[in-house]
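go over this record:
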Amino acid sequence: MTTKEELLEQLGNGYTNKVVDRLHQLIYIRDGFLQKLAKDALTEDWGADNFALEKYLSVQIPWSIEQGHFTTSGNQWYVSAGNLQTRYGTPLYIVLEKNTYSSRPPWTVKAIGSQISAPHLPTAPTIPTGPEIPRGAEIVMMHDHILGDNTDRVPFLRDTPPVAQMCAISGAIQWSLNRNLHLPYWYYGQMQYIIPLYLQSRENITQMPDLIAPIQINNDSLLVRTILAPHMPYANARVSVHRHDQLPPWLIDTWKEHSTTQFSLETAEDDQ
């Protein structure tokens, strides 16, 4: 019988940002299964080649394993497709069996759907909560990467002195935190947050921000490693909510504008 310890060993270290590669170490997903899942689930935009859906599963399935939210029978094991449901509210499941064509990855998807044959159906994983954000903590920025390597993302700050740039971003982060505008975000094996940055206008905070700042929470500081265009964090933010409509409308709208642009998705993957 398949055990949690066996699956975790095959899955590998969770401290990685290459979550899709990590899932592929464990599971082989044949062509067509992602498309079937996207078709069966509530309608949402998963991007070119179901980019965001594959990342979603690459985070949610390991959560199910880590939390013991899977069931077994013979040479098969069963896991929910995260928190995805059909348009009628029925959970969606994934059936996995030994990969008989190759030893790597050790498992392959046998079936995906809302009606599977299993002695016991698994439950969806619990979405972890992020750490508490320490109020008044110092905001530490990797300036060379944030603004030196990505000046194209902040053209309105290009001619501003570096210290003024850092002050502008730090102030925008604090302004959004004071208004609880931060969003949960999966990053390097744990839940963190993204902060919308309103640098040019704050008249309507329901509108798309100028930039996004992912923050990493340390004991006494908030580390900012990069800044992102508003659509870039969608896939990592999508894993942290039960349904996509629980994300801010501006994030959904800007994602729709860029979701079919493969270059944008690859850039987002590299930065995150």
Notes: The mean pLDDT is 91. The chain has two domains: 4-113, 138-271. Residues 90 and 114 are 6 Å apart (CA to CA).
